[in-house]
Each structure stands twice: as structure tokens, then as C-alpha cells.
Fold:
Amino acid sequence: MATVYNWQLKRDMAYLYEGQRPKRQIAYVFDTNKCIECQTCTVACKTTWTSGKGQEVMFWNNVETKPYGCYPLRWDLKTLELLGEQSWEGETYTGKTVFEAAPPGERVLGYRPEVEDYASPNLGEDVIAGLVEKGAFFQGVHQVWMFYLARICNHCTYPACLAACPRKAIYKRQEDGIVLIDQSRCRGYRECVKACPYKRVFFNMVTRISEKCIGCYPLVEQGEQPRCVQTCIGKIRLQGWLSAPEAPRRDNPIDYLVYVRKVALPLYPQFGLEPNVYYIPPVHVPRDFLVQMFGPGVDAAIAAYRAAKDDPELLGALLLFGNTPRIVTSYKVQDQQAIGYDEAGREVVRVPFQEPVYIRPYFDAERGVYRHNIT
Amino acid sequence: MRKLLFLSLLSLASLALAQSEVRVRYVNVPADAFPAQDPLAALWQRAPVTRVTLLPQTVTTPSLTAPSVPWLEVQALHNGTQVAFLLRWPDATRNASIDVDRFTDAVAIELPLDHQAPPSFMMGHPGGRVHIIHWKAIWQEDLDQGFQDVASLHPNYWVDLYFFADTPVPLYAEGEFPHHPAARSFKTPEALAQLSGAYVRNPVSILDRRVPVEEAMAEGFGTLTSQPKQNATGRGVWAGGQWQVVISRPLVTDDALDAQLGPGLRSVIAFAVWDGGQQNVGARKHYAPWVPLVFEELPQ
Structure:
């Protein structure tokens, strides 16, 4: 075991290999407040990557309803139960990670799902957290909460799948930090399936080896965001590059959201993998639940997010979501517009803070028709 | 270096542990009468039985914490050109399918490439290569029952379409379930690309397997590599709570990656057994360290 620094836990931790951050790290920010669980991302991923034989119930991307939704079944509850008490002192995690809590003879603490656990990919959909009082009616604020959690591989800095593979068939690419399973080297031992606490590695019963999200690397290599990001109609996703924690760049929208303003938080950071999908937490959900899920930064993240409308730099970063297929590596705010640039410094997106309003006449004389919607 | 020393000590300890040897009995039979694929042949009665104690693999992680197979019985025959090993072990459950939570029964033999200085029995070590021959129950099932496909595991799966699959009949026949193309009907590069393991010719993902065994080589933990040239064959049957598996190969091959064997040779052999019902897989296995292996001379 080596000792590595996990910035999300604010401390050193044990990991099987020496820490070596990639040249750049793929990272995503998902705004849970905007997700409507239309599953367009899920279908885009499914039709692109997992429509083959043996992938019938395999979803590299899924969207589940929290608190009860889960795919595979109870993935989060099971790992949380296995891990036992998880405690934070301020911003420092004082509990054990899945690496530190590994039982004798194991590299990682984990469990392997059963085949039935994958059988209901959208179990718990739209199920709310409690009961609705008799006679209740909608008064502008929902009385019982739920929210949608979109999930993909976190392309972790310290992947548990990679650590668990006895064949070193899993690797993290130096050029972009994407975690891949070498399909010619894997022998289907399923140690990775067992180790990944997010259960983002899947076993293919036909090829008899394991498969996982590939971060749409053929797109990313061409400067384009992955399919799940491009197709998101709610514009909840932004993919980009996360700098090393000691060198954040303020003009990098991912760095700004994650490191500078800290509005986007990792999912279950206490597992210790330093996951690289960051979530803007839902503003309406009980804080205890959110702290368990996203760590101690929840209150500050929600406060900053709520104030975004009066915060041009933050608003600008949020407006880049879903407005370009290109990967935005830097941005600036100018004249009430958010402007995004690609790696070569070319402008790839320009979003006004306020969409212009065009009022068209009620009667269109040219076409001889009346308009019902004139804006 | 310290690891090597540790493994060498383990090897010495294992030799001390071994109470007997595997004697490869010479039988004067032609190739077609040699039981290369017949674990139930009467000829096996002529081979002495060696019982080998199996140990749970706990040297490296992941390890086997709950062993379930206490021993393995070995018999061996050669006819001057071929060698066959009959391996018999108790296993109450026959596990010959694979899914996320299903594991196959399996057995393997290991031979050193250098008979004078065998490397670590634990998959060899860097510079000390071993030759390993695997047999797996699911591969036997692929041969006996046809490729173990989605329909074998989940007969009620409903799938609208598999992209690019070569379907001899329409996907939907009137009033019937959709036709499910077998994995073997994925032939074009576009179709095979949907089966990434098969597309890159991963030896685990072979759709048209011809033998239930695989020849591999290794130089330490995690280095198992399928050999480009496959010379071995075998067959396994399960009955009455035990597996009987034959693994056979030519004594001498033109493959530089194979251990070369022959009459009069004194070497060593090691074994591994996986109990699929107990989720044994990979390093989670039972093993027996080097056991002396003696080939009988040809009669003068």
C-alpha cells in the first residue's frame, strides 16, 4: 500500500499504487436541480455503447430517483452499510475509505451485486421520501422531497476497480484520466465489479469479461463532450478538464465550479476514490441526507448556487452547460454574456445572461395566420 | 528480491510437503486408443493414483478465505508421443455457467519450462516462466450444449434488436417472440464490434470454441497470457459429486512456449482447482504446490 493525497478528504490515505495524477483529468459537473429524469442521456449512451448481446440490462449511464431509486439494487446502501460509521471533522474525513477498510485477503471493501440487482434499472422512479398528508395540495413548494441523480463512471483519481484488478487490465489514461478496461487483457474475474462502490463496472455474460463507461473517448479526443453531455435536454451537464487541486485555474469553468466556488461536490467522497463527477446538490433536500451523499461542503454550495443570479462569474459558468458540443477549457464573462473557448482559444459558445425577447405580431399578414404564442 | 526469496522458500517448503509423486505410466497404445479426451476410459485403471492436498490461495490478494475442495486425485498416462492427466476432485455442485454472480468450476495444471530449476509454483516469477493448461466447465458446456448464450441464462429476455446481427429469419414472426440471434451470428466487423471482447479476440470471449482447454504462460501473479499456439485438448464430466477431467497434449511440441516432456523425464507439476459454487475465480483458488512428476521410460 502506498500513501496518496485525496483533496476531497483533505488528508492522505492508503492506495494500492503510488499517486500519479494524469496530465489532465476528465471531469463533469451535473446540476441535480435541473435534471428532469427524461433518460435522454441513458438512451444516448445505451444506443451508442451498450446495445450488444450480453448488455441487455447494462447501463453505463443511468438516472435514478433519490432516496429510493437505485441501480443496481441498493448499491449505495450496501456500501454505506459495509463501511460503517463515516465521520468528518470540519472538512477532513476521519472515517475509513473502502481501501483502508479492506478486510484481510482483499484489496478493497466491496460487494458483488447479484444478477437480479440489475433487473430493474429504474426501480423507485419518482418515489418520494415520505407520505403525503391526507388533504394536502400543491402550494408552490413540494412537501415531500425526492430528486434525480444522474450517474456515470466517475473516472476516479484513485479508482477502486483499477486497484482491485489482479491482472492490471484496468488503466487510467495519462492524457485525459479516463479509466478503461483493456478488453483484450480482462479475464472476467469481476474483482472490479465487486470493488467499485458506485457499481459502474458491469459484467458481460456473452463476452465473459467486464465493461464500463469509456468517457466517450473517441469524442473527447476530438475536443467534443461525451454523448450523455451533448444530448442532455435539461442542460444539466458540463464536461471539461479538472486541474490538479493545488493549481486551479479561475477561467476554467470546471475548476471554478469545483475548486473556486465549491458549488459542485463529489458523490460519496468518503469512499476515498476521489471521483471526478461533481454534483450541484439539490437545494430542497434535507441537509443531513445531502451531507452523507456529498460531504461537508453542502451548505456553502447551496448558498452560492442560490445567489448565482447576482453573481456574474458563477452565472456565466453555469450558462455554459449544454450550449455547445465542444469542450470548453476557458471562459469569461463580458457584456452580460458568458463566452467559452476551446483548447486552441477559439470561441465555441456565447450565451447571453438573458435571452432576447422577440414579440411578433398577433396577425402575420405575410402568411395570413394568427399566432397563439407571440413570444 | 525479497519477494523472490519468499517464494523460493515457499517452493522448498512445498517440496518438503509433497508426500508422493505423480507417476506418468507408459501404455503401449496408438493415438486413437489413448484417452486424450476420455476421463472414463478403462485404461485409466492402469495409472497409479496420487492424492494431492489442496490449499487455499492466501499468498496474494485477492485470496481465498473459505476453502471448499480439500484434495485432488491425479493419474497420468503417456504412450511415447502423448501425455494425459486425469484430475478428479469432489465438488457437490456442478457450475458450468457464468453471469455477474455465477462462476464456473475449473482446474489447471502447471509445468515449469526449466525442469532442472522450476520457478515459483505460484504462477512462476519474472524470468521463471511456467506453462499452464486450464480446463473450465463453461467451455465444456459450450462444446457439449452449444455456446452458453443469453438465452441459456435468461430464456425470457426480450430484446427488440441487436444492431448488425446476421439474422436468418425476421426478428419478429407473427404471434411469436422475437428471434434472438445467437452470439455466433455476429459475424461482420460491425456486428462483432458490439461484442468488444470477441472483436479484439480475447481468448475468454471465443464464440466458437473447439477445445475446453486453454494453454497459457505466466511469469508471476497477474501475468497469465494465452499462448498463440494451442496444442492441448481435454474433456471433463461431472457425476456423483465429483469432477473427472482429462487434460492432454503431445509430449513434444514445436512450440517454444510449451514445457517439453518425454519418457524418463523427472520434473514437477502443480495444480489449481476452482469451485464455481463458492465463487472461486482468478486468484481465489485452491492450489497444490510443485509435486514431483516422473515419466516412465519406454520399454527397451
In short: The radius of gyration of chain B is 21 Å. The domain at 2-147+209-295 of chain B is CATH 2.60.40.1190 (Immunoglobulin-like).
